[in-house]
Design brief:
two-stranded parallel ribbon; 11 helices; 273 residues; 9 strands; Rossmann fold; alpha/beta; 7-stranded mixed β-sheet
Length: 273
C-alpha cells in the first residue's frame, strides 16, 4: 500500500481541501451533479483528518461547493464550443479537477496558484499533456499575463473560492490592472454577501482553519463594472436557481431558500473590453 501524502500548506491554501472533500462526498449522493471520480482518486492519496473536515461540512456546504463547480463547468464548456482553441486560466486551482471534466482535446489550460499549493498539485496531478501549464505565482504577480501569452483565440478566467479572502481594495486593484491588458477575455468567479460571510466563516473556523478569514462581501455586480470602463457584466447567477428537484433534506432545502432570498452566494461573469 502506498504511503499517503501529508499536507503542508499555508493558512488560506489549506482551504483547498474543502472543495476537494465536497466533490468526493458529492459522488456518494444518489443524484450527483458532478460525480467527480478524479477527485475521489486524488483524495485517497492524502493524509487528512477527515473527521475534523467533515465535522461541520453540512449537506448544503457540500452542495454549494459542487454547484459552484457545476456552473463554472457549464460556462467553460459553452466557451469552448465558441472558442475550441481558446485558453482557460484557473486562478487558485489548488487540487481542482476541472480539466478532467471539461477538456475538449484542443484548448490550452493554465492553472495558477501559490507555490506551496502548486507544488502539491504537481506532485498529485502532474500536467497530463503539453496543453496544460502550471504557474506557481500569486494572482497579484501580474507577470502571469505574459505566461498566458496571446489570447486572440479567446481566454476564460475562472476564480473559484478565492476573492472573498481578500480586501475589496485588493480585488479592485486586481480587476483594474488586468482588465485593460486582457481585452476580450471573460472572467467568472463566486462572491458572497456580508451575511454569507458570517455563516461561511464560522464553518471554515469549525473545520480547524481558524486563521483563514473571509473579508470581501458584495451583492451588486454593478459595483465591479463601475471600477473600470474596461469591465462589462455578462450575467450574475444566484446559487441554486436552476436546481429545484434535488433529493435533499428539508433543512437543506430551507437553507437554499434563505440563500436565494438574501443573495448570499452568487456567481459573476464579466467581459473585459
Amino acid at each position: 500500500m502506498n504511503k499517503k501524502i501529508k499536507l503542508q500548506l499555508g493558512t488560506v491554501q489549506e482551504t483547498l481541501l474543502l472543495p476537494l472533500i465536497a466533490r468526493v462526498k458529492e459522488t456518494e449522493f444518489k443524484h450527483p451533479i458532478l460525480n467527480d471520480t478524479k477527485s475521489v482518486e486524488l483524495y485517497k492519496q492524502l493524509e487528512v483528518n477527515e473527521k475534523k473536515l467533515l465535522r461541520n461540512m453540512t449537506e448544503i456546504g457540500i452542495y454549494g461547493l459542487c454547484y459552484r463547480a457545476y456552473k463554472m463547468d457549464e460556462t467553460i464548456r459553452a466557451f469552448l464550443v465558441k472558442n475550441p482553441n481558446g485558453k482557460i486560466l484557473d486562478i487558485g486551482s489548488g487540487l481542482d479537477t476541472t480539466y478532467y471534466r471539461c477538456d475538449n482535446g484542443k484548448a490550452l489550460w493554465y492553472d495558477l496558484d501559490m507555490p506551496d499549493s502548486m507544488a502539491l498539485r504537481k506532485q498529485l496531478l502532474p500536467p497530463p499533456n503539453n496543453r496544460v501549464t502550471y504557474i506557481a505565482k500569486s494572482m497579484f504577480d501580474y507577470s502571469w499575463i505574459d505566461d498566458i501569452g496571446d489570447i486572440s483565440n479567446g481566454l476564460l478566467i475562472t476564480i473559484p473560492g478565492v476573492l472573498p479572502y481578500f480586501k475589496e481594495a485588493d480585488v479592485q486593484a486586481f480587476f483594474t490592472t488586468i482588465a485593460p491588458k486582457l481585452k476580450g477575455a471573460e472572467i467568472m468567479f463566486d462572491v458572497i454577501s456580508q451575511m454569507g460571510i458570517f455563516f461561511v466563516d464560522a464553518r471554515i473556523k469549525a473545520a480547524g482553519m481558524k486563521n483563514a478569514h473571509l473579508k470581501w462581501g458584495i451583492l451588486d455586480p454593478k459595483t465591479i463594472s463601475s471600477w473600470s470602463k474596461h469591465i462589462e457584466l455578462i450575467r450574475a447567477i444566484k446559487f441554486f436557481d436552476d436546481k429545484q428537484k434535488l433529493k435533499i433534506r428539508f433543512t437543506t432545502r430551507a437553507a437554499l431558500r434563505i440563500n436565494k432570498l438574501f443573495d448570499m452566494s452568487q456567481l459573476f461573469h464579466f467581459r473585459f473590453k
